[in-house]
Amino acid sequence: MKNTHLLLLLLCLTLSACINRSEEVVLNTDGSGTLRVQSDIPSAMVESLGKFFSFMFEDMAGSNLDIMNALLAEEGMDSMESVEEMQNLHGFTQESLEAVCATTGSELVDFTAEVVDDVDSSSFEVHFPSVAALDEIMASMTTETAGIELVRRGDEYEFRCTKADQQSNDAIGEGELSPELQARVDSLAANFEDDPRVMGLMMEMMGSMMSAGATADGFRVLHQVTVPGDVQDHNAHMVDQRTVTWSYDMENLMSGGLDDMMGATTDSTGSQLSETNRWVVFSAKGLELPEVGVDGR
């Protein structure tokens, strides 16, 4: 697929340029903590992207979720568990949060969803009992396939949030579809970017982006982590005592922030990381925190 990266870049820019989103994690001395998320998306963007996914599902995939997910996997996009999930740009609903809280022993203490001044807004606050629970909560949010790590190295802990590899995508459509359906997926994927209807919907989404940018702040994403020990090292944009903050807006996105979000960055061990790899190293003095690997164990 010769234009895959261009299409995905356009889609990511179209989505992100309209989003105001903040995610705040406060980690306590026992490994429990609080997660607060605020997500604001222009209503026009919600409508146009809903049309895009409806077209993919109904017209291209013939309302077959397996074909839809196989096609999304071919295009490097996250899979969908239901039709309703395609309409949810925030990555969470009250029902999905209540479900993951029930399985992780967490508490949903606040949830708000409303439309104000043509902006679709959703926010929540969750109290989680462990970093492993936080990992599951973050993984349940479709806008961020996260892997949370908390690892002790000598006298320090490293807390890291990384974008996990697309294991769920890779598994979908490989050996699960019949040869006839797989051939259909291959044909759809081969012609996906040349389909004038796809490009028309992409242009509609970009038009929504432009319209939203003229009336709102445009793209702004903030990630904030407060740790229970003194900060020793980090790859954040700002640090204030024990709170580190990664902040992206359209200006720094276009001047290099895109490399941070979409390309490789280097962590404290010299490893090459990809999108949404955020880490902070803090003192372990007086702390005995349960370690958590990228798989939540």
User: How far is the N terminus from the C terminus?
Assistant: 37 Å
Average pLDDT works out at 74
Report the sheet-strand fraction: 25-35%
**Helix-strand string:** HEEHHHHEEHEEHHHEEEEHEEE
Number of helical stretches of at least 4 residues: 10
Number of strands: 13
Number of structurally distinct domains: 1
Global outline: globular
Gyration radius over CA: 20 Å
Identify low-pLDDT runs. Answer: 1-10, 165-175, 261-275
* Main beta sheet: 7 strands, mixed
Q: How does the helix and strand content classify structurally?
A: alpha+beta
Fraction of residues in H or I helices:
25-40%
Strand order of the largest sheet: 3-4-2-1-7-10-9
Provide the descriptors you would attach to this structure in a database record.
single chain; disordered N terminus; globular; 297 residues; 39% helix; 7-stranded mixed sheet; alpha+beta
How would you sum up this structure, described in words?
The protein is of the alpha+beta class. The chain has helices at 4-16, 43-60, 65-74, 83-86, 94-104, 131-140, 167-171, 179-191, 196-215, 250-262; strands at residues 20-27, 33-42, 107-116, 119-128, 146-153, 156-163, 220-226, 231-234, 238-240, 243-249, 265-266, 272-273, 278-283. A seven-stranded mixed β-sheet has the order 3-4-2-1-7-10-9. Strand 5 and strand 6 (156-163) form a beta hairpin. Helix 1 runs parallel beside helix 9 (196-215) and helix 2 packs antiparallel against helix 9 (196-215).
Quick synopsis:
By secondary structure, this protein is α+β, with helices and mostly antiparallel strands. Helix content is 39%, strand content 29%.
